[in-house]
Specification:
This protein has 87 residues and is mostly helical. Helices cover 74% and strands 0% of the residues.
């Protein structure tokens, strides 16, 4: 007999959450070994630039993929809030 799939309050399965947690563990755990190998090949400053540069590119890609970029509607709403607060 199969157990029912665990779902969130809105009815969606938690599979993506668990996959994200596993990926986080894999990246976090491999960061230490990778940094030790990287220091043997390049100076620490270059390694830091590569690490943070790749991390920021990945985060920007995730941001824009999820639609977190500024749209005209969001900017207009922020301007309305600013106007209301200044009164």
């Amino acid at each position: 007999m199969r157990e029912p799939q665990v779902r969130s309050e809105d009815g969606r399965p938690h599979g993506r959450v668990y996959a994200g947690l596993v990926l986080t563990m894999a990246f976090w755990g491999s960061a230490f070994a990778t940094s030790k190998m990287l220091v043997l090949e390049v100076p620490p400053e270059v390694g830091a630039v590569l690490r943070f540069g790749l991390g920021s590119l990945l985060m920007m890609a995730l941001l824009f993929r999820r639609g977190g970029g500024r749209s005209r509607r969001n900017v207009a709403e922020l301007q309305d809030v600013r106007k209301r607060r200044s009164r």
